[in-house]
Amino acid sequence: MSGDHHHHDDHDxxxxxxxxxxxxxxxxDPALRVKAMETLLTQKGLVDPAALxxxxxxxxxxxxxxxxxxxxxxxxxxPAFRTALMADATKAIDxxxxxxxxxxxxxxxxxxxxxxxxxxxxxxxxxxxxxxGIPPVWxxxxxxxxxxxxxxxxxxxxxxxxxxxTKQVKVWDSTAEIRYLVIPQRPQGAEGFSEEQLAALxxxxxxxxxxxxxxxxA
Length: 218
Hints:
Layout: E1 7-9, H1 28-43, H2 49-63, H3 66-77, H4 79-87, H5 89-95, E2 106-110, E3 115-120, H6 129-132, H7 137-140, H8 142-147, H9 152-158, E4 168-173, E5 179-183, H10 195-199, H11 204-208
Helix pairs in contact: 3-4, 4-5
């Protein structure tokens, strides 16, 4: 999907620099408030700690980002699915059974030799839980949210991804209505791989755009 109200090229913004992304952390105060609220609700019998832990574990380790990796692997290996995914990601992902929390309205954007895509939520932390799991701390940080729209190449270098000047960088801003899934480029040397083998090459960061797919044998 394209449209100037959804994505930003890497030269269209004039914001302030807010420090390093990879070394930024959320303030401790919000975490303490959340912990205090969890403790209070547990004491009042309104929250089952075991159920809460199970929910967090599911989204962190079992639901995502494994689901997203399976979507990418199928797009790499099945041209018909790739076409359907690019045309209507919500429908294609739903057909794989991965529609869920914050993944109801999905758009797939594909990395190519000419374009690298990266996703952010500049207002808060909108993120497709059903395909990528729980968002990492850096995705929610002010440093990432403010800097990636004005200096995407610099931010990506901090993640170890060096995008050449000859390649365009597009920054896609997730909203409450639309969330994005980056389809990374399939690495060379993975010809003949099964979907399961391909999925093992797909990382969470590569589906946000702050990383690349792993090389076979790496």
